[in-house]
Design brief:
Elements lengths: L1 E5 L9 E7 L6 E2 L4 E6 L4 E5 L4 E6 L6 E3 L3 E7 L11 H7 L18 H9 L3 H9 L18 H9 L32 H16 L2 E9 L1 H18 L6 H14 L5 E4 L2 E4 L5 E7 L2 E3 L2 E2 L7 H16 L5 H4 L4 E4 L19 E5 L3 E7 L2 E15 L5 H17 L7
Parallel strand pairs: 12-15, 15-16
Antiparallel strand pairs: 1-8, 2-4, 2-7, 3-6, 4-5, 6-8, 9-18, 10-11, 12-13, 12-14, 16-18, 17-18
Length: 416
């Protein structure tokens, strides 16, 4: 009995997906729960497992094609259903054939000297891994894959790159000279939009056009908090393997602020303002070619140490392209650490479907007046962009005041 496979919805706000790569071809067998196609969205690249064991009868969507969620993308004949795969029609054969030019990555064609071995290698590597191979000048055809079914993983590529020139480009696929990519822009050229950049652009425009943005900022004295972090950072890294930044302290104060001002943890709907029950903090992470927002679930229930570990794990997974759909779903409020790059003031765009986003800016030593005397203090700005349909200045400034109060009350006497 044939089973029609549809484009999955990889996240609450995702409405479409791109077939990045078919891992199985027409006529090939697939086991239940075995990945058979890789789907790309603005949030994540995900391998989609087969719901049945069977044989691929037909693929309905070509690699690189974007379709709405719920659109049929393939037909699988169940094993043991009593129906044999139908003879392959010319149209199906055309869809199943490997393209004469290898699949695109980041919108750019991969140049090969030998199409057959390159095609096989590409089938064993995701678009992100192929991009990583280009960035490290690694010939992906010579890399032994340690992933499922021999697929080449990001770790395989970095290991090969570390092994020296033997793994480097000679016959390696490469972006044509003079071609611009988002990670490596070339002056005077045009960067072709990949699916992630295209959807990010659409979502940012939609957010600005839909939600009337307002903006506010507050200055925070984090001197005592800075001392606390300095005292604890060595022990924290030894115990967890992650560096202790100000981010988990900030997230903790944000979560407490959302408890005090629940309207900030809400979203606008045609029926009214929906105040969310869970406090799930998204952490904006900038990557060379993308911007993603993985989510710390139930952040209000976690200690500062647990938040530090959770944030460290998500950042590490993001950099290794290991985030899953669950890591990116369910965010109710977003934190953006612009200060990591030295920013002292910014007005971020609200993450779609949320009421606000807050930034933590760079910590800067400045002279300030305390008790009628000038003192050198560690100062930081926190900037809030808000959906004025949901929030007014009174509530927004109250939330920022609560955030300031909580951060300034954190000090070396606390426990992580």
């Amino acid at each position: 009995m044939p089973t029609t496979i549809t484009m999955p919805q990889l996240g609450e706000t995702v409405t479409e997906g791109t077939v990045a790569q078919w891992l199985k071809r027409v006529g090939e067998s697939v086991e239940k729960y075995e990945p058979f196609v890789e789907v790309s969205t603005d949030k994540v690249n995900a391998e989609v497992p087969s719901p049945v064991s069977g044989v691929i009868r037909e693929v309905l969507v070509k690699e690189g094609e974007t379709v709405a969620t719920g659109t049929p993308i393939a037909i699988i004949d169940d094993v043991g259903s009593g129906s044999a795969p139908s003879p392959q029609t010319p149209a199906a054969a055309t869809k199943a054939e490997a393209p004469s030019v290898p699949p695109r990555s980041n919108g750019q064609p991969v140049v090969a000297t030998s199409s057959a071995p390159l095609d096989e290698a590409l089938r064993k590597a995701s678009p992100a891994v192929r991009r990583l191979a280009r960035e490290h000048n690694v010939d992906i055809r010579g890399v032994k894959g340690t992933g499922n079914a021999g697929r080449v993983t990001a770790q395989d590529v970095t290991t090969a790159a570390a092994s020296g020139p033997a793994a480097a480009v000679g016959h390696a696929p490469a972006v044509p000279s003079g071609t611009s990519t988002y990670a490596e822009p070339v002056p005077g050229t045009t960067i072709q939009l990949n699916q992630a950049r295209r959807i990010i652009a659409q979502r940012m425009v939609e957010s600005k056009q839909t939600a009337p943005h307002a903006w506010s900022t507050v200055e925070i004295d984090v001197t005592e908090l800075w001392k606390w972090r300095e005292r604890e950072k060595g022990r924290f890294e030894r115990e967890t393997g992650y560096k202790l930044t100000l981010l988990p302290f900030f997230i903790r104060a944000v979560a407490q602020g959302l408890q005090a001002f629940p309207l900030v943890n809400a979203r606008f709907t045609p029926e009214g303002i929906h105040v969310l029950k869970e406090i799930n903090i998204g952490v904006a992470i900038g990557l060379p070619t993308n911007l993603i927002v993985p989510v710390i679930k139930n952040a209000d229930r976690l200690t500062i140490k647990a938040l530090g570990v959770a944030a460290g794990e998500l950042i590490d997974k993001a950099r290794r392209n290991k985030l899953g759909v669950d890591d990116l779903a369910g965010g109710t409020f977003t934190v953006n650490n612009n200060g990591a790059n030295g920013s002292i003031l910014s007005a971020p765009i609200i993450n779609g479907g949320q009421a606000a986003i807050v930034t933590m800016e760079a910590v800067v030593k400045r002279p300030v007046v305390r008790d009628d005397a000038i003192a050198i203090r560690q100062m930081m700005n926190a900037c809030l962009s808000l959906d004025h349909r949901v929030l007014d200045g009174y509530t927004a400034s109250g939330f920022l005041a609560e955030l300031k109060r909580r951060l300034e009350s954190m000090g070396p006497d606390g426990a992580i």
